[in-house]
């Protein structure tokens, strides 16, 4: 046996795309796209230089936040955000329960299934901000429009996940209840509800968390909450107040994320 | 045996929960209802109910003015649409470039220092995640001025947290035996990373990136509302002059883009994983 028969060098095999032609073609395509895309980015360097000074002021404001000067506005926005979050989650979950049951293939007749899935699809496809624009146009500025927006978004989220959960239940338990001669309502109450309840509570807590984050954003288009206050602070170039608001948002988001993950672990 | 053998009053009744359990449950629900009512009153303190009662009429009015969409406006939407896609793609790339080193620093099995660098990397990831891309855009527009650059940076900074978190969790879940085998050959730290960890997390990494790209397409469509370029800027301009037929068309375009990007991302993820 000669040395030439036995390979002494090892070449790493390709990891994703096996064909050499396609890997080159994709690489060239990516480079062409990048050149085209980066070419569309126009940067006004003079403006950036002016902005850098503002950026420094913003970083300074973030490090030395000013909670006191605008505290009335901040607390008002915060109260709106928090109350909006809770009420919209409660109402959204209450509405999404019948819709989730209707969108479960094993519980609902075909026409109810189609309608409920349609509602869920519409709610999920529309961005919160876009929905908020419409609700502000219809119901006027303020927290009520924000409440409706978050409720609408909650329906799609909880409805979809609840429906999938109901479709995944243990059928033998449902059959046992059915064998006792239970009505449809009793079936839902005794066979489905005990199986999906822990997860429903977990999802609701998770959505509470998401709704708070979103409530910080939809204020930008006038739907109330802390986002509006932040927008105003930035428009007035009050970076120290804006820094304070951002710190409050980050703190509440971190707090709610930790507590909701703990609560979920405890419930499930 | 007939039913009359046991007097009705003494017949044991089956209950789902014990008495104390039921009491606690009712108290919990009552507390939630009370909290809800209290929050509702606080929230609607400043609501103008006149507008709310007016809403059905306003809605009918809005629909009549917004339909049909103004199709001829489409000519002026192709440019902003291309910008929107670029913001999402370049922003995702930027996010990946920042998130990969952060994820390596944040994962317990690859971090060089648990005491100092890991908490720092975790803080960056959490901070990026808690600020919505629209708020990032708001800040960056006020610093950099309106334009695509602010949008790309906003999308990038928001993606760092998402990609970083999922990637460091994937790195922590890698199979330790494979890494040990590479270490046993006398590999350097960089070689361990390249031959032990990268092949294990690569499919997850591509999946996360494409998923984030899909989310970024949705988000970049609205960044223009605060001046960060893309189709949202057109939306903002149309809203400001109350050109509702144009708004309808832009909504339809955004909806179509979102559906297409979701389809693409689902196909790619399906092919990889």
UniProtKB/TrEMBL annotation, chain A:
Intracellular or extracellular location(s): Cell membrane
Chief site of localization: membrane
Membrane topology (UniProt): Multi-pass membrane protein
Alphabetical UniProt keywords: Cell membrane, Membrane, Transmembrane, Transmembrane helix, Transport
The UniProt record lists the keyword Ribosomal protein: no
Keyword Transmembrane helix: yes
TM regions (residue ranges): 21-41, 86-108, 129-158, 241-258
GO cellular component: plasma membrane
GO molecular function annotations of the record: ABC-type phosphonate transporter activity
Span of domain ABC transmembrane type-1: 78-260
CDD domains, A to Z: TM_PBP2
One Pfam family hit: BPD_transp_1
PROSITE patterns assigned to the protein according to its UniProt record, in alphabetical order: ABC_TM1
Family assignment from sequence similarity: Belongs to the binding-protein-dependent transport system permease family.
Protein name per UniProt: Phosphonate ABC transporter, permease protein PhnE
């Amino acid at each position: 046996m000669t040395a030439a028969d036995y390979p002494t060098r090892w070449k790493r095999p390709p990891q994703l795309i096996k064909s050499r032609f396609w890997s080159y073609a994709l690489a060239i395509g990516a480079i062409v796209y990048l050149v085209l895309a980066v070419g569309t980015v126009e940067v006004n360097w003079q403006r950036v230089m002016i902005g850098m000074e503002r950026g420094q002021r913003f970083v300074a404001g973030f490090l030395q936040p000013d909670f006191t000067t605008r505290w009335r506005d901040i607390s008002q926005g915060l109260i709106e955000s928090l109350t909006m979050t809770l009420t919209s989650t409660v109402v959204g979950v209450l509405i999404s329960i019948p819709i989730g049951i209707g969108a479960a293939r094993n519980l609902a007749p075909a026409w109810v299934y189609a309608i409920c899935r349609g509602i869920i699809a519409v709610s999920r496809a529309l961005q919160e901000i876009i929905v908020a624009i419409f609700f502000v146009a219809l119901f006027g500025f303020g927290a009520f429009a924000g409440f409706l927006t978050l409720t609408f978004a909650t329906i799609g989220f909880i409805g979809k996940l609840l429906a999938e959960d109901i479709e995944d239940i243990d059928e033998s338990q449902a059959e046992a209840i059915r064998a006792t001669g239970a009505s449809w309502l009793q079936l839902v109450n005794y066979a489905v509800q005990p199986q999906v309840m822990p997860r429903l509570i977990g999802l609701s807590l998770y959505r509470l968390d998401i709704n708070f984050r979103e409530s910080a954003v939809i204020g930008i288009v006038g739907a109330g909450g802390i986002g509006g206050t932040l927008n105003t602070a930035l428009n007035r170039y009050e970076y120290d107040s804006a820094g304070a608001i951002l710190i409050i948002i980050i703190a509440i988001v971190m707090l709610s994320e930790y507590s909701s993950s703990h609560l979920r672990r405890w419930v499930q | 045996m007939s039913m009359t053998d046991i007097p009705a009053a003494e017949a044991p009744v089956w209950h789902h929960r014990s008495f104390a359990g039921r009491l606690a449950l009712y108290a919990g629900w009552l507390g939630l209802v009370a909290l809800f009512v209290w929050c509702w009153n606080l929230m609607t303190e400043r609501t103008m109910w006149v507008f709310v009662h007016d809403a059905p009429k306003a809605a009918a009015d809005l629909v009549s003015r917004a339909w049909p969409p103004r199709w001829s406006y489409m000519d002026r939407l192709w440019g902003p649409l291309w910008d929107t896609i670029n913001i999402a793609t370049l922003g995702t790339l930027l996010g990946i470039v920042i998130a990969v080193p952060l994820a390596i620093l944040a994962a317990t099995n690859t971090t060089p220092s648990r005491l100092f660098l890991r908490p720092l990397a975790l803080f960056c990831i959490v901070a990026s995640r808690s600020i919505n891309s629209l708020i990032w855009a708001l800040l960056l527009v006020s610093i950099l001025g309106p334009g695509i650059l602010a949008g790309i940076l906003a999308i990038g900074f928001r993606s760092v947290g998402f990609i970083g978190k999922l990637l460091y969790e994937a790195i922590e879940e890698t199979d330790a035996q494979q890494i040990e085998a590479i270490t046993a050959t006398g590999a350097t730290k960089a070689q361990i990373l390249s031959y032990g960890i990268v092949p294990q997390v690569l499919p997850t990494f591509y999946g996360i990136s494409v998923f984030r790209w899909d989310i970024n397409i949705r988000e970049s469509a609205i960044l223009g509302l605060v001046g960060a370029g893309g189709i949202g800027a057109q939306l903002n301009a149309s809203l400001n002059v109350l050109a509702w037929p144009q708004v309808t068309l832009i909504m339809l375009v955004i909806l179509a883009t979102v559906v297409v990007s979701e389809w693409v991302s689902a196909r790619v993820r399906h092919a990889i994983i």
